[in-house]
Amino acid sequence: MCPYCGEQISMVLDPAVLRQAYIEDCEVCCNPIEITFSTQYDELTNFHAKTLE
Do residues 28 and 9 lie in contact, with contact meaning Cβ atoms separated by under 8 Å? Predict the structure, then answer.
């Protein structure tokens, strides 16, 4: 869900990356979203999508 407009959005995450943080624009409202996630054994263990402040 986009933290700005609340719409459901999609993104591709690489489970081989243990930790990553990046900025991706919402495909609906075009606002920048800060994405952070971590994985362990190719499983998503943590995911956050938040507004830039």
Answer: yes
